[in-house]
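>> Question from a student workshop board

For tomorrow's exercise we were told to take the sequence and the ligand below, predict the bound structure, and bring the output to class. My setup keeps failing. Could a helper post the expected result so I can at least see what it should look like? The ligand is flavin-adenine dinucleotide.
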Amino acid sequence: MSPLKIKKGTSKHSAYDLRSNYADTQETHTLAVIVDNEAGVLARVIGLFSGRGYNIDSLTVAEIDHQGHRSRITVVTTGTPQVIEQIKSQLSRMVPVYEVHDLTVEGPSVERELALLKVVGEGEKRVEALRLADIFRANVVDSTLESFVFEITGPPEKIDAFAELMRPLGLEEVARTGVAALSRGGSGSLGVASDKVTADVTGGANA
Amino acid sequence: MSRQMTGAQMVVKALKDQGVDTIFGYPGGAVLPIYDEIFQQNDIRHVLVRHEQAAVHAAEGYARSTGKPGVALVTSGPGATNAVTGLTDALMDSIPIVVLTGQVPTFMIGNDAFQEADTVGITRPCTKHNWLVKETEKLPGVIHQAFHVATKGRPGPVLVDIPKDVQFASARYTSPEKAPVGHYQPRTKGDATAIAELARMMETAERPILYTGGGVINSGDEATRLLRELAGATNFPVTSTLMGLGAYPASGDNWLGMLGMHGLYEANMAMHGCDLMICVGARFDDRITGRVDAFSPNSKKAHIDIDPSSINKVIHVDVPIIGDVASVLGDLLEVWKERGAKTNEEGIARWWSQISEWKKTRCLDYAPSKETIKPQHAVERLEALTRDHPKRYITTEVGQHQMWAAQYLHFNEPNRWMTSGGLGTMGYGFPASVGVQMAHPDALVINVAGEASWLMNMQEMGTVAQYRLPVKQFILNNERLGMVRQWQELLHGERYSHSWSESLPDFVKLAESFGIKGLTVSDPADLDDAIREMLDHDGPVIFDCLVEKHENCFPMIPSGAPHNEMLLGNASTKDAIGSKGAVLV
Ligand SMILES: Cc1cc2nc3c(=O)[nH]c(=O)nc-3n(C[C@H](O)[C@H](O)[C@H](O)COP(=O)(O)OP(=O)(O)OC[C@H]3O[C@@H](n4cnc5c(N)ncnc54)[C@H](O)[C@@H]3O)c2cc1C
Ligand SMILES: Cc1ncc(C[n+]2csc(CCOP(=O)(O)OP(=O)(O)O)c2C)c(N)n1
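>> Workshop helper replied:
Here is what the output should look like for this input. Compare the format with yours to find the bug.
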């Protein structure tokens, strides 16, 4: 695990920063939460957000280490800096949680989402849909004479943009996976190499 | 050593291995195998309460008065749902308890089986953690982990849900030493840089204050000792929240009394005017801060807390120190002494003379009466007549009486004061007194109660009669939901909507119907004798103290007001709370 580059006043370590005043501006953060893949763990995380009135913009979860039974939850949330700090502290004190990383502030990261879009149409519209799909590097994964199912991967904004363009061309259905995110560069085996998962990273497994 | 045994046997064995000597419970179909095992052994005492809520509060009382985790055992469905209030109470007040619930057999879960409830679902938000155990071989490990989680870091309630077939099936037992340790290992040692920073601030502060809370009690005896040493060595004044009373002795030289909504004038003024606030194991609750943007506006704030989520939650602090109170205070004292053990003596002397000015307000004074017993007077007399008892433990219900108990009773030791602070659960005190008395058979255990709260768990008279628990139920009977009535007087134009205690029982007859001693007193002249009679009686007593009906509890910081705007006893209360404050609770 590489040293985490943490901006002032943003992670749990920010406890040691002197933030003069809480801004009431809203920020959107992407958090990676490594948890024991035990029964109810997702309900716990979701319950925390609903119970304390935090927002969930997107949430994805899957087991990433089958031997260690660890899952990675990627959650995109919006709130004031104070709320974001609370969310991270509240998450990291949960018993099944190993680590909480704020990918938005811990250096550069990549975010990707996969979406499937069904576009139904004929003639000019159909051709236009295919042309745009090509520009967006969307693949055709199913087609009939009057429909396509496109598969597109990218940052959420790209998918938003693509879906917007497809709307007048006969967009019928959208399925999105939600965001998966990783830090850039050669660092990090978050949650996979169990011997490297130390309490220090998040400042302790916490109360 | 591991050998085959049934799940039910494992439960009893695991409890023994965890050092449990007492459990509070109530049987039912889904826990019968465990009850069968309890029947066949003598190491663990089982106390049959009369309601599952009481089992959990009793476990809380046991835990808070011993520093050890309390244990409750209840059946599935209604047994588990009845435990929910107690679990939430323990979560809010950071009390370590382990609640075991029965569940319908695994193959029936999800079928709306008889007495099935989604116990782990229902209790997920009101436990620190919970488990549904579906395989017998995992049961001992989970129970051991449950004790670990309940007691480590910020303590709290945990729940283990055990289906009936898991109790019947056999597997190998795992001892605590061999049980898989989870990765849950909260950090206890504070950051050295932050501690050094605080030590430096202590040297120059002119108006310092130690704002201490329940975390000192949670941390244990060493934390209490170090807090006393710190206050003594620095001559800093000390105040405490409701939850922290007794950590610093009320008889100590530096004691300012409780702070907060019903705290002492001098404590709140000192909090408002200080230049260095050292928060030790307290959580800036809204009963403390009042109006957040006017809270102690000119101070630097340090916060020692084991739970990072307590830090910067309500009040932004300058020096946060995540760690256990005992560990951090130990390090802090060491660093501060290494640096020469300096304080700004001159400044602090001026500060103390300012504080003694505030003390002259005599904010706990009240108008005495020869005709009716003033509730404050009753508590003062209780204090006078019990203060020398070497083993006095106090529990309370919730309301005005609770605040008067906090104001007029003096605690010189930790773990002697059990009250429901965060959730404010009426009905807490009676069962909690049962738990305390079970833990300390020869102690004097008094529940200072309001009649309305007391009625909420009065079925526990059966328990105290059965086990001959000599708890004293000191009921300040104002025939009102006093605290509610006070708020209606201050906030709702004296429209006393449903804040009467109508149709009260005759408490003496009620007690006698359970074979318990009942006492009633209404004349101030008889009060001392009646209290003595209560204390001298070797057994439980229901003490019905008829007090002034419309007394208000002061001082009071009205909701939405800053600390330096307190209502005092002699102040007019009309329109004290503005319309903005009225929406706050
Ligand atoms: C009717 C009513 C009126 C009330 N009025 C008042 C009032 O006037 N004044 C008042 O003070 N309260 C009052 N309360 C109680 C109030 O609601 C809160 O329960 C109380 O103030 C919280 O106390 P605390 O801050 O000490 O926190 P606690 O709830 O005791 O929390 C302890 C804190 O310490 C931390 N901690 C735990 N263990 C450790 C450890 N080992 N090391 C370090 N940190 C640790 C925890 O993380 C937590 O942040 C009232 C309650 C009621 C019902
Ligand atoms: C279970 C529960 N229900 C309601 C309340 C709201 N409440 C707080 S104090 C109070 C009145 C308590 O009356 P009593 O026990 O007689 O005490 P007093 O205030 O008169 O001393 C009420 C209803 C509560 N705290 N708990």
